[in-house]
Structures are given as structure tokens and as C-alpha cells.
Amino acid sequence: MKKKSFTRRDFLKVAMLAPFSGALFPGLKSEHREGELIKKAKVVLIRDKNALLSFKKPNPSVIQRMLDEAVCALFGEGEPLKAWKIMIKSSDVVGIKSNVWSYIPTTPEVEQAIKRRVMDAGVSEDKIGIDDRGVRTNPVFRKATALINVRPARTHHWSGVGTCIKNYIMFVPRPWDYHHDSCADLATIWKDYNLKEKTRLNILLMLNPLFHGIGPHHYSDRYVWEYKGILLGEDPVAVDATGVRVLEAKRREFFGEERPLQPPAKHVFLADTRHNLGTSNPQKIELIKLGWEEGALI
Amino acid sequence: MEKLIFFMLLLSIKGEGNLMPLKAEEMFLNELLPKEIKGWVAEEDNLYDPQSIFEYIDGAGEVYRAYNFKLLFSRRFKKEKAPDLVADIFDMGDSKDAYGVFTHDLEGEDAHIGQGSTYKGGLLSFWKDRFFVSLYAEEESLDSREALFELGRKVADAIGREGKMPELVSLLPSELHLKNIRYFHNHLILNYHFFVADENILHLDQETEAVLAELKKEDETNILLLIRYPDRERAEKAQASFLNTYMPEAKKTGLIQEEDLKWTSVSQKENFVVVVFNASTGFEAEYLSEMLLGKIFR
Questions:
Q1: What CATH number should be reported for the domain holding residue B290?
Q2: CATH number at residue B44
Q3: Higher-confidence residue: A14 or B125?
Q4: The pLDDT value given to residue A24
Q5: In this structure, are residues B122 and A220 in contact, taking their beta carbons and an 8 Å threshold?
Q6: Of A115, B47, B133, B259, which is most buried by a Cβ count within 10 Å?
Q7: Which residues on A lie below 8 Å from B60 (Cβ)?
């Protein structure tokens, strides 16, 4: 059966019914019945005003503490190691899927903080890999039983945002095959390459996000700000949707008017409504905020 | 200098739109850029084509491919204790497409270089003849800005002759004082600027030419879309497709009040289709449509 085309009018129909959700969730159909209990996806946002030593250099000890506190909050544990052991078994082979985009990379400080805890959970160092563009041929990733997905948040010229869902694009042989319609169907990668089951944690770094891009390189320091935060959760769609809200709020603040992402971060919401990878609906996300409050934007 | 004259002669013989052999083309593009500018020295050159561009600028490459770009010559300049400068010269093969890709991002102050230019956030962009030029400082400063402007003037001088703007743009009524005029070929670019439908319901492709423009008023902005097809039959099919998908309840009139209470109309004459979005009344939508077609067929 030919797929029905989704037009601007369909988008307007949803927006008229639920102004906020319509702006973010084209095609969303409410499944919530009055009085029904909804199992919410937990997302933790932690911020610390000492998270950066300088503009793009994370403070290693603060980053470690932020990650520990956040995973404790996510899993309701009092000790970080107990929380990490919920995610990782000592027998696991762990791939830490990082991001090397030159302007705002994940950074060794964050990578090592994650690796440290994976080792503390009992995984030997030779069974831990950290990679981005080489994941398809990396021997650890090829036999990985567990993945930690980590990258900085930024706007993106073609998909609207570069966040956790998009971070797995390097698992496919021809990334440009997913460019159609502003990368609308990126979420299919997670199912097609068996990544959803393996992913134990999604970490979206909001330390110094890019909220607006210009030119072929889609970067200017002018549009980066020190939010000094980390978002994490088990549901990549919930994490990304929350990150999108922060970026949109920053754009509103900076430009002094409504400046939607261009193109819109459609793939995040279609990951929910079309591909059932997770939830993008704020009503179905339990956002736990920790730490520094000033400038939180959401 | 003799080398430059030689290549200019070669270009005039070959004519606009016909590329030289690759090596000659590379050498020609090389000659457009100086080796040194205000203390910044050329350090690294690279050449990219429509297949390899993704290695350089990731998904943003789709924009240039949508405008039929042929080659990209990139030069990085370095200066001690200063941010790098990156010069990207896109040979678009045709001045219409150089103009078109320039209109993809119109944000910024006019830099008065080339045939159209903008500057913002450390990025200077302009088009001249069949070339689109992007000059970028990895960090913005007074020095880097001066260097970019100097570099831009030199490149524009080296390009020499000017190219023609798309004739379709000249068919827009000047008395409307339209803003944000964008020229393009395919629906991916249309959706980037104004989402119509996820499928290509207007049958746009590299053989069609389209212009999207804004008519700004005090309390609203009308969106005008003018498309030229290779022949009347294709225009008729495109209109029928738009009617069937976008406004099936108004197939006979081609005029509809949408869910946000704004009016949209579609008209076709010969090989042209005009769509007016976001009009406050049906009369206004039809009036603007007739005005556009009237100018073309006067």
C-alpha cells in the first residue's frame, strides 16, 4: 500500500489540537485515556557551573561526578557503581560510540569518565572500545554486547539536530542513503542494525551545545554557549526530544523571537510516531533536574 | 598572471556550464585563491566532487548537490596565534545555480562583494559567475574579518566576469518588493525553507526551476511559489498531483482555507504553476496568483 503523504496541512491539524505538541510531534496521535497510568521515560538533566575548565575543555573530576550523580538518579541508586552494574555486566564487550566532529567533539575527558566506570563494573580494558567513524571495522564494536551512546548536542544542516539518534549513522555503510526528507527515518538504523537492544545508556552532552549553524561547515563560535549540562537516559528519543527543547529555548532567547530549527528536527519525533523507538512527548517523559539551576531554559 | 589569462581563455572557449578536464579545472580553481592573505599562509588544498563532498561537510553536502555542483576546491590558511581561515570555492557549473545556492542562506549583512554577498559570524559568502564562494574564520575577530573581506575581494577580482541570474527571478513582479527570494530545483530545498509535503507532490526535479518568495505585510507574510516545468504536460500533472494530495476537497477550484484559517491557491498556465500560501483571504490568494501569471504572459 502506498504510504500517505504527510503535508503541511496534516501538521497544522495536529498543531490546532495541541499547540505545543503539534509544533513538535507531527502525526502524533494521543493514546492517553483519562485516568490511565502512563509509564514515563526517565531523562536526567544535570548541570554544574564548574563543568568546563575553559571554553571547550571539560573539567574531568566534575564530569565524573556529574555522570555518577546522573546515573544514580536514573536508576534510583545511592552509589554510582551499583547504577553502572545495572547497565553493564562484567562479561560484556562494551563499545562507547563517541563523536569526533572537530568543532565540538565528545572529548577524551568524557570518554575516559565513561570508560572508567565500565571498568569499575568489571569489564576488562581489552573489551572496551571507543570509536566513531571506525565502528564498522572496529573489532570491539563488531562483537559488542553493550553500547554506550555519547555525543555533544548540536544543530545540523540536514537533519535539524545532531543528537543521540543520529550518532549511530556510522554503523551504516552509506550514511547518505538516510538523507532523504531531512533524515526523517534515521531511527530505522537502530532496528536494522540491532542497536536498540545493545544500547544501555544514551548520553547527550550539553556542555557547550551549538544552537545555530551557518555556512558549509555549519559552525560559528558565536552560536555556542556554555550550558554546562549532561542529559542522559535509556530512551534515546526522550533524551533527544529534551535536548531539542533546550536548543529551541536557547534560540528563542538569543534571537529574541521564535526561530524554529531549520530544517526541523523531524527525525526525532518520527522516531516516536513512525518508528516506535521511544517517546518524544514531554507528557510521557519524567525529567529529573539536578544541580545548577540558573539558565536551565527548560 | 599568464597562467590565469590562459585559463580564462580556456574558460571562454569552453563556455559556461562546460567543465574543463579535471586537472585543468583544479588548476584554474587554485589560481582563484592567493597563497597568502594578511599574514595567513595557504597550508592545505583539497578537491571534492559530488560523491566525496560528504567526507568534508557531512550532510550539508546535499545542499550543493541539489544545485548540481561540479567541484569544490578548499584551501586552509594558517597564521601563528590566529584562527585558521577556510576558503571553499564551489564550481556550480552555471551562474543560475551559483545564485541559487547563495539564496539558500541569506542571513547576514551585505558585504558588497561579487554579485551578491553576506557576512555573519565569521562567514563571508558570495556568488559570482558560476562560482559560490564561502570564506570562513574558525574564530571571529577584527583581524580575521579584515582578512576574509580582503580575500573575498581578491577572489571576486580573479573570477572576473559576471554571470546571469535565473530568468525566472526576473518574472516576479518588482512592485511587490518580495523578500527572501530563493531559487532552487528540488523539493528537499523547498521543504527546508517552507515545508509542503514529505513526498514530492509538485514533481520538482533538476529539470524544473522554482522560486520561493515572501510578501511581507504588517500582520502577515504571504508565501509565493513559482515553478517552471520543461513543458505544459508536466505542469498539468504537477498541479493535479498537488490538488489530489494537498487539497483533494478543492480539486475544482484550486483554492482552500487551511486549518490555520489562511488561504492557499494553486494555478497552472502553460508550463508554469503558481502556489500562494498563507493569504488572509481567498481573494488575496487568487489575486496574487493572477498577478504572477499575468506578468509572465503579458
A1: 3.40.1000
A2: 3.40.1000.20
A3: B125
A4: 44
A5: yes
A6: B133
A7: 157-158, 216-218
Instruction: Fill in the DSSP letter of residue B160.
Output: -
Instruction: Tell me the three state secondary structure of residue A178.
Output: helix
User: Best of A3, A56, A217, A262 to disrupt the B interface by mutation (most B CBs within 10 Å)?
Assistant: A217
Q: How buried is B24 (Cβ within 10 angstroms: 0-12 exposed, 13-18 middle, 19+ buried)? A: middle
**pLDDT of A39:** 82
Q: Which of B54, B199, B246 sits opposite A176 (nearest CB)?
A: B54
Residue A118 pLDDT > 50: yes
What is the share, in percent, of chain B residues with pLDDT greater than 90?
84
Q: With contact defined as beta carbons under 8 Å apart, do A267 and A160 qualify?
A: yes
What pLDDT is attached to residue A31? 42
- The domain of B9 spans 2-159
> Which three cell numbers mark B161?
566576469
How many domains are contained in chain B? Answer: 2
pLDDT tier at A21, thresholds 50, 70, 90? very low
Number of alpha helices (DSSP H) and beta strands (DSSP E) in chain A: 10, 10
Q: What is the ipTM of this complex?
A: 0.82
Residue among B188, B193, B259 minimizing CB distance to A16? B259
B17 within 8 A of B93, measured Cβ to Cβ: yes
- Among A61, A42, A49, A63, smallest CA distance to A205 is for A63
Residues of B in Cβ contact (< 8 Å) with A223: 121
Cβ(B119)–Cβ(B109) below 8 Å: yes
All residues at 6 or more sequence positions from B180 whose CB lies less than 8 Å from its CB, including other chains: B106, B193, B212, B213, B214
Q: From residue B255, how far is each of A48, A234, B152, B234, B278 by CA, in Å?
A: 54, 47, 47, 21, 12
Q: Convert the pLDDT of each residue in B37-67 to its tens digit.
A: 999 999 999 999 999 998 899 888 999 999 9
Q: Are residues B147 and B173 in the same domain?
A: no
Q: Judge whether A39 is closer than 8 Å to chain B, CB to CB.
A: no
Is some CB atom of chain B closer than 8 A to the CB atom of A102? no
